[in-house]
Structure formats: structure tokens, C-alpha cells
């Protein structure tokens, strides 16, 4: 005999079913809202360094978000993703050396160069898979690194300092740290919306299907290569925008932005936050930068402590911090 379902029980079931998606929908905007309130905290405790750290968090969150598109939704682990950060940074440095300081022009140049580099290297890299894909992306990333090291006219291995931040339509808006912070926050929010649209679209469904079972996707008439290459190019272009913003924040450009170690840090951010989730890379980048700053105060070997924390997070939840939070609230990912 089945149990009777009373109106009260039905109401509770409906409320619970509605609450979980609501939490999932509101979580990203809660995170963005907390970031938007950071300047108020910095002003309240009179510590401007908090704003600097928060801006750095947002920039690397943008880079990690781009990597998550190919890594979390496409199962493509790239050890050369930091090359696109370097491309974006050098778009600022090289153009500035020729007197082109407008941010929009620098972003446009970064998008074009990063898109072409991703198209060529992605076309070759995606002919492989697994560990071979990892190694070939590592090789292309190191090629970009050594190419920038060889450009002695732009500082070579020592990098190059910028005379100032980029202008926006002739106005020196980014000179103020607060304006830069909110500008980066707006760009990150726009990238988040773009990623959410892509993932929910037919393109995103095919990309995830390719991740799960490429053979079946070919059998039903889709070309995994074309979708993976498109995602690879989009990810590289978004990472280049992060490079433009990073160069503006630190007012310095260096080949060190392009090393395989930096790519490894981006992978850690994605894994720490949760692969295949939209909010995960943002959380991962935030926690990574925070731990980097806090642990560095205790020891120069802070990466050892970070590694231990990462192991504990992965053991606690294979889906990273986003998966752990989802299990705690019994809901779904953002």
C-alpha cells in the first residue's frame, strides 16, 4: 500500500525542489556580490592591499574559467595555457612601446594573435590525445616562452616595465586601482555569462558529449575535432584578455607569465574549485591566490602546504570545493 501524500507533504517537496535550483542560480551572483563589496572592506580597515589581491584573484579567475572550458567540459588538459596570458600581456607591452595605449586596441590585438596561435597549435595538438596532448601543448607553450625570451628589444628574459596603465578611449580611467578592480569584475562577469551560454547551448552539449563518449558523438554525426578546436580557440582568446588585465595591474610584462609552471597553477585552480562547473574555477582561483598570500608569510616553501591542502580537498571531494559545497547543501552545481 502506498503512503498517502498530504498537501503539506506536497508543499514541502515542491519547496525543497525549488530551493536547490534557486541556490544554484544565486550562488554565482552571491560570489560576484561579495567581490563587489571588497572595496568597502578595504576602505573600512584602511588596507588598500586587499584591493590589489582581490584584483589579482579576479584576473586569474578569468584565466582559470577559460581553461575550464577545454579541461572541465572538453577533457583537454593543456600545460600550455599560460602562453595565452603571456600573449595578452605582451600585446599591452609591445603596443605601448609604440605609443598605442588604448585598452580596446590592445585587447583586440591580443584576441587576434591568441586566436591565431590557438587555431594553429590547437589544430596540431588535437590530432593527439591523452598524455600526448598534454606534452604537445607543453611544447607549444615553451616555444612561446622562449620566443619571448629571445626578443631582446622587449626586455628578453628580464621582461619590460610599462610607463603606465592603458587608457580607455583616451581617458586615463585605469590609473585608479578601484576603477581597475571594477573593470576586471565586469569583464569576469561577462565571461561567466558567455561560458554559461556556451555550456547550455548545442555547442556545449556536443562538447560534453565528446568528453564523455567521442565515439558515440561521431556515430550520431558530430565531429568532435571541430567542436574541440572551437573551444580551444575561445579558451585561448579569453585567457589573453586575462593577460591584458594582468599587465595593466602589475605594469610589468615578463616571459615568466608563459611558463609551464604557471599553466600548472591554472590547472590546480580548476581542480581545486571543481572541473566542469562554472563557478568552480572562480572559487579555485580565489582560494589559490588567498592561500598563496597567507602561506607565503609562514614559509618560502608555501607550495608544499598548498599541495597538502589540495590533496585533502581532492580526497574529500573528487569534484573540488564546488562538489563539496554541493554535497553539503544537497543541490546541483552552478
From TrEMBL:
InterPro entries per record: ABC_transp_permease (IPR001851), LivM-like (IPR043428)
A Pfam family it matches: BPD_transp_2
Transmembrane segments: 22-42, 48-70, 82-100, 106-124, 131-154, 179-199, 220-246, 266-290, 302-318
Keywords assigned by UniProt, alphabetized: Cell membrane, Membrane, Transmembrane, Transmembrane helix
Membrane topology type: Multi-pass membrane protein
Compartments where located: Cell membrane
Name under which the protein is recorded: Branched-chain amino acid ABC transporter permease
Protein's organism: Tianweitania aestuarii
Amino acid at each position: 500500500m502506498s503512503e498517502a501524500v498530504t498537501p503539506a507533504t506536497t508543499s514541502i517537496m515542491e519547496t525543497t525542489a525549488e530551493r536547490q535550483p534557486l541556490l544554484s542560480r544565486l550562488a554565482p551572483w552571491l560570489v560576484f556580490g561579495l567581490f563587489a563589496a571588497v572595496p568597502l572592506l578595504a576602505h573600512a580597515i584602511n588596507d588598500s592591499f586587499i584591493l590589489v589581491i582581490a584584483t589579482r584573484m579576479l584576473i586569474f579567475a578569468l584565466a582559470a574559467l577559460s581553461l575550464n572550458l577545454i579541461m572541465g567540459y572538453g577533457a583537454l588538459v593543456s600545460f600550455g595555457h599560460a602562453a595565452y596570458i603571456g600573449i595578452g600581456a605582451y600585446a599591452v607591452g609591445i603596443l605601448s612601446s609604440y605609443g598605442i595605449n588604448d585598452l580596446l586596441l590592445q585587447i583586440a590585438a591580443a584576441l587576434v594573435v591568441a586566436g591565431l596561435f590557438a587555431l594553429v597549435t590547437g589544430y596540431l595538438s588535437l590530432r593527439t590525445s591523452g598524455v600526448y596532448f598534454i606534452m604537445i601543448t607543453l611544447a607549444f607553450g615553451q616555444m612561446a616562452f622562449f620566443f619571448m625570451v629571445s626578443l631582446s628589444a622587449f626586455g628578453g628574459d628580464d621582461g619590460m616595465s610599462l610607463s603606465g596603465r592603458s587608457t580607455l578611449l583616451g581617458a586615463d580611467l585605469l590609473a585608479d586601482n578601484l576603477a581597475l578592480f571594477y573593470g576586471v569584475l565586469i569583464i569576469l562577469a561577462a565571461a561567466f555569462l558567455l561560458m554559461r551560454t556556451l555550456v547550455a547551448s548545442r555547442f556545449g552539449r556536443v562538447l560534453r558529449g565528446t568528453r564523455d563518449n567521442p565515439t558515440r558523438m561521431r556515430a550520431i554525426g558530430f565531429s568532435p575535432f571541430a567542436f574541440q578546436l572551437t573551444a580551444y580557440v575561445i579558451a585561448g582568446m579569453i585567457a589573453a584578455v586575462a593577460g591584458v588585465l594582468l599587465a595593466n595591474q602589475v605594469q610589468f610584462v615578463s616571459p615568466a607569465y608563459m611558463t609551464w609552471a604557471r599553466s600548472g597553477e591554472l590547472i590546480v585552480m580548476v581542480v581545486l574549485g571543481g572541473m566542469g562547473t562554472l563557478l568552480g574555477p572562480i572559487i579555485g582561483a580565489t582560494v589559490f591566490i588567498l592561500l598563496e598570500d597567507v602561506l607565503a608569510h609562514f614559509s618560502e616553501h608555501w607550495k608544499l602546504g598548498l599541495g597538502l591542502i589540495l590533496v585533502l580537498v581532492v580526497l574529500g571531494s573528487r569534484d573540488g570545493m564546488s562538489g563539496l559545497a554541493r554535497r553539503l547543501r544537497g543541490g546541483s552545481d552552478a
